Amino acid sequence: MAEAVPEPGAEPGAVPGAERGAQPGAEQAHEQARQVLDRSGDPIRVLLVDDQEMVRDGLGALLCTASDIELVGEAGDGVRAIRLARELRPDVVVMDIRMPGMDGLTATGAIIDAAGEDGPRVLILTTFDLDEYVYEALARGASGFLLKDAPARDLINAVRVIAAGQALLAPSVTRRLIADVARRRRAGNLRPEAVSALTARELDVLRQVARGLSNAEIADELVLSEQTIKTHVGRILAKLELRDRTQAVVFAYEHGLAGGTDQPE
């Protein structure tokens, strides 16, 4: 089961920690909750993508129970998802992986490549044990994933966290997923020149991001101000040409910067 993603004000899901274990710290929870609550009054526009109509009906009905979420469209395959994402301009795309025709992995990459920084955030729904391509979806720009067997309310809260610009990963499995696939990466996928472009301090910050720490927690760890950490994170993402913290975690694991026993070889 995925770790629950609580209501704003409680402890939302987060990238996994190394020495810290699966649960995020209190500062990180409050920081993410504040960003969720700081959204404008506009509803979060969601595009739902799944090849099973019954699943779409159930998930759609669930999303519509939230007053701050608007279901703007549904798609049963990747091709239609790309078209609707372009036409409807949703804030969040809830994306299944395994679909006939174009799968969710290809569709995720196409949607994000086409829209760029101003495009929708993609939340992957997965069964994890069967979906080996979740890692690739994260690497292509998805902002996180949620297990399909998670409690129903987790989906609503996951959409809120993703829409607020935060990375959301299932803490109990994400570290295992990223570490396992990173071990089997091809050397050609690495970008050592990008790592060399980071300063020593930026590398320190990136390692802490890979542990799942918030800006406030990294500031405490490195004895710096939170604003300084925020600036470093922004520079890291810009230098590495990454969209968000989720991709930074993937990058750190791929390049052996995550630390801990699960560090890729």
UniProtKB/TrEMBL annotation:
The modification 4-aspartylphosphate is found at D96. The keyword Cell division does not apply. GO terms for molecular function: DNA binding. InterPro entries: CheY-like_superfamily (IPR011006), NreC/VraR/RcsB-like_REC (IPR058245), Sig_transdc_resp-reg_C-effctor (IPR016032), Sig_transdc_resp-reg_receiver (IPR001789), Tscrpt_reg_LuxR_C (IPR000792), WalR-like (IPR039420). It comes from Streptacidiphilus fuscans. Keywords: DNA-binding, Phosphoprotein, Transcription, Transcription regulation. Gene3D superfamilies: 3.40.50.2300. This is Response regulator transcription factor. GO terms for biological process: phosphorelay signal transduction system; regulation of DNA-templated transcription. Residues 1-36 are annotated as: Disordered. Residues 1-22 have a biased composition (Low complexity). Residues 45-163 form the Response regulatory domain. Residues 191-256 form the HTH luxR-type domain. Pfam families: GerE, Response_reg.
